[in-house]
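U., I forgot to send this yesterday:
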Amino acid sequence: MAAEDIPNEVDKLLDNLDLKLLRDKQVRYISIGEKRKVSVAIAYVGDSKILFLDEPSSGFDSVSRRDLWDMLKNYKTGKIIILSTHYMDEADFLGDRIAIMSEGKI
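Result:
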């Protein structure tokens, strides 16, 4: 991603995650749920081809969880996303391939 494209990409991510009003706040002053959203947005900046997301929607309310799911679904083209979750509906909605781990075995 070209350096000049980053501000537009950041604006788009903040908008998708409903964080635009927090743009100028320091992370230490926002809620835990908002911090988790910022973490997901940071994973996308730089146009990485492989993303590892560990329970990205954990602790979200249902509206925020659905917003995150929609954003992940829209942004997954051309990327490999490895996601861990305890929510089977999340795995079903987001996953192209799903592995279930039980007692340390897939």
